[in-house]
Write a structure and sequence with these properties.
Bound molecules: zinc ion
Strand content: 25-35%
Low-confidence stretches: none
Strand order of the largest sheet: 1-2-3-4-5-8-9
CATH architecture: 4-Layer Sandwich
CATH superfamily: Ribonuclease Z/Hydroxyacylglutathione hydrolase-like
Radius of gyration: 18 Å
Structural class: alpha+beta
Length: 291
């Protein structure tokens, strides 16, 4: 498989940093609105695209993106992480591999090179490398970075965590705040003239997409507003982890319409490699076409 890991657009370079690309959850379980008939209609191309395995389990990529602007190096979504107790996900539980930091290094970056970390939302597979274990304590992995959290998203998980402890919030978000490396921002926040926030609620209440480019959206990082290319063809299909499935569906269609037939590079969090493409119309729906 040819694997594109680097894209140049405008005055930016974008690198994919892959931690895992693997089977995740059966399609019919992950997408409660998906019927066996629709799955059957789409099985051939999904298998061809490595979006579905031989047992109809969705294949997902878990990755960060590193964006280099003329001024800053920004890491978007920090994946799964090491040494974290995740008993419900054997592939993520107490991991000790060097895949992620190795991939970061192969892209030409050390943790100390990252100026900003941004999370599209605060789910387990988007915050993991925010911290690493050092002498029994969780410390920021990226020692010089400011970690940019959407205030609305942080407040949501803070309230949830107060009711029932949420381990990834406790081990991968709160230690950043305790180390005072955080910034809580509203949706009007920008970094220089290259990085902006696009509110995309539904998967979580404070979910954001992140748009980059000087004066125009050269690229957009869509986070978890969609997980499988099947959802570009059927934008009404929400996943079982969407906090508000109806809003997620509305957000997904309006996002796809916004970028349809534009030159904006859509960098998805979880689509199978190459994960990146341009949104194109197909009938009453869309595809993310590889570039
Ligand atoms: Zn995710």
């Amino acid at each position: 498989m040819s694997m594109s890991l680097k894209y140049s657009v405008g005055d930016l370079t974008i690198h994919r940093v892959i931690e895992q690309e693997t089977s995740f959850v059966p399609a019919l379980e992950m997408l409660p609105g998906l019927t066996p008939e629709v799955l059957t209609e789409n099985r051939a191309w999904m298998r061809q695209a490595k979006a579905l395995d031989d047992n109809d389990v969705l294949l997902l990529c878990f990755q960060s993106y590193v964006v280099k602007t003329p001024h800053h190096t920004i890491l978007i979504d920090s994946c799964i992480g090491n040494d974290k107790p995740r008993p419900n996900r054997p592939k993520w539980n107490m991991k000790t591999d060097d895949t992620y930091l190795g991939a970061l290094g192969a892209a030409g970056f050390s943790p100390g090179d990252i100026d900003f970390v941004m999370c599209t939302h605060l789910h387990v597979d988007h915050v993991g490398w925010n911290t690493r274990l050092e002498n029994g304590r969780w410390v920021p992995t990226f020692p010089k970075a400011r970690y940019v959290f959407a205030k609305q998203e942080f407040d949501h998980w803070s309230a949830q965590n107060a009711k029932t402890e949420i381990p990834p919030f406790v081990d991968s978000v709160l230690p950043v705040v305790e180390a005072k490396r955080h910034e809580f921002v509203g949706n009007d926040h920008q970094i220089g003239d290259h990085v902006r926030i696009l509110p995309t609620p539904g998967h979580t209440p404070g979910h954001i997409a992140i748009t980059v480019g000087r004066g125009k959206d050269d690229a957009v990082f869509s986070g978890d507003l969609m997980h499988s290319p099947l959802q570009t063809l059927y934008p009404e299909l929400s996943i079982k982890f969407d906090v508000d499935p109806a809003k997620a569906a509305t957000t997904r269609r309006s996002f796809l319409e916004r970028y349809c037939d534009t030159e904006t590079l859509c960098c998805t969090a979880h689509f199978p490699s190459p994960s990146v493409g341009k949104i194109r119309r197909k009938g009453n729906a869309f595809v993310c076409a590889a570039v």
